[in-house]
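retry 2 of 3: previous attempt timed out while embedding flavin-adenine dinucleotide. Reduced batch size to 1 and resubmitted. Inputs unchanged:
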Amino acid sequence: MQITITVNGTTHTRDVEPRTLLVDFLRDHLGLTGTNIGCDTSQCGACTIHMDSQSVKSCTVLAVQADGADLTTIEGLANGSLHPMQQAFWDNHGLQCGYCTPGMIMSATKLVEGNPGISEAEIRHGLEGNICRCTGYQNIVKAVQQAAGEMGGD
Amino acid sequence: MYPPKFDYYRAGSVEEALALRKQHDGKFLAGGHSLIPVMKLRLSDPGVLVDIGRIDGLKGISAANGSAKIGALTTHAMVEAADNLPDILPEAAGWIGDPMVRNRGTVGGNIAHADPASDLPTVFTALQAKIHVAGEGGSRVVEASNFFTGLFETAMSDDEMVTAVEVPSKDNHTGTAYAKLFNPASRYAIVGAGAMLTMQGNQCTAASVSIGGLLPNAIRCPSVEAALFGQTLNEETIAAAAAAVANDIVADDVMGDIHASAEYRQRMAPVFVKRAIAAAAARA
Ligand SMILES: Cc1cc2nc3c(=O)[nH]c(=O)nc-3n(C[C@H](O)[C@H](O)[C@H](O)COP(=O)(O)OP(=O)(O)OC[C@H]3O[C@@H](n4cnc5c(N)ncnc54)[C@H](O)[C@@H]3O)c2cc1C
Ligand code: FES
Ligand code: FES
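retry 2 succeeded.
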């Protein structure tokens, strides 16, 4: 089936099998391998991207469901310089192996939108769908809090 | 992991969806957050999917004449953000899975799937919701307490679909609440309890209480309701009413798994019923 999807500002039209998962479309058809596959069972959030301005797990969306949608992946976040959320993860050492990081950052950017003063408890609740096997979350929470302030609700 | 092969059709209306499903003996696809995972695990291989996700008019919440109608394609995130629904709904919806699951998962898909660990069957049972179901011959309304009939089973036939759920609108004398024992990994309910109480001062003049998570399907709790009716609610009377849930649960039906044994779930039932009642009473 033919689908048209805009990713990071570029529109792509491709033929896909209906069973193609959105994450595989991004990685294998478009070569955008920044979005990771962790659990592949809808639990870990490593595959999180933005679809029509909402965070979604791209391993649990079919590419045909995203036909016509506007997507942002981790590759589209930086705009000349690192996005404040990316910079905050760097500054606070919010990662170790880095596997969960693209998904964490994509979730976190949506989480803090409209909430510059987000509390630690809200951050922890809001990141329940993103699992990190390395950091113990402490520095991730610090990074998100820093970026929230800097982003000022954007 | 990828799902088994299937043919894909997109429906533009409820009528078209029903016709396509019947013609191809397929399955409806809404948010896909129950169906895609089970297909990837090869627990389901429907062969044909009829995508209902783009049907106009099934997404959103409308309120009129003392009730609110939630379209089948309304996402959990939309319910969480709603300010015109009884408190139990945004509360329970905000505890479903995580933000990404709530952005995709739909109310209709949740109740049609009828997972015993889902939250909305328990919530709608407490609210005495009316499930609007469309079929080829027209539509019908099923009371929530008659809709959930067993493990992943509902009163709908394959030829029918959920179009909306109707719930009472928020009202000053009625308090509603949901209390949930989470599975710490998936966030699904190990035990979930819902309560809707009408109060005159401290006296309970109507009670509707439900429990789910530990049984194949969510149920009303008539013994608990009878113990609340007409009572002045305080810590003692609430605890006594919650304990009566033991009379509403058939012990042999209680399910256990690696996350929580049947015995543990059974012991948690009165604890969470009590919390739901206390929170609902405080909101009435
Ligand atoms: C990681 C994770 C955590 C979750 N945690 C929770 C939780 O804590 N609590 C909870 O309640 N749920 C939880 N869920 C499930 C989630 O709420 C699902 O979104 C929901 O159960 C199914 O809705 P859907 O729109 O995704 O349906 P789909 O997956 O598209 O469909 C599910 C089933 O319902 C049928 N169907 C869909 N829509 C209709 C309709 N309108 N009429 C008739 N049949 C229909 C489909 O044919 C299919 O059989 C979780 C899911 C995931 C992946
Ligand atoms: S890979 Fe998608 S949630 Fe883990
Ligand atoms: S940094 Fe390794 S999984 Fe999070």
